[in-house]
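re: ur question from earlier - yeah i can do the single chain one, its not a big deal. heres the input i used so u can compare w yours
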Amino acid sequence: MTCESLWHPGWPFIDSITGSPPQRLAEDYTAKTGEQWVASLAQYAGFEWAVDVFKRVRDVDDREEVIGRVRTTTMKTCLGPIDFTTPVDAGGAASARRPAENVYKAPVAGVQWVRQGSATFQPTTVSNAVV
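and the output i got, formated as tokens:
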């Protein structure tokens, strides 16, 4: 079976909070839950983004300042880069990271689930042109 993946432990990005590669995030998840890692671990990048924004905010009660810091985010996360300073590309290109104001698209890869051992499957990246 093949599908798209919004995150994979083999991706070449680094967690901006701990400096760890995605593989360590997956291993930590597996160690703490006893379950196989899942692509939804990419949601961790939202926490990385929030930490970055609030580190740059002087007054957390000032909504305009918080929004302003969100709109000027330029950082690397476990999910990949976030750069709201690049121009909006509304031309419809599939590779456009900023198709609209206040939107930044994450990279996507194609994966194929491959049997490992007698009962487990592991998603293996087969297309990562945008990663």
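The chain has one domain: 7-105. not sure if urs matches, ping me
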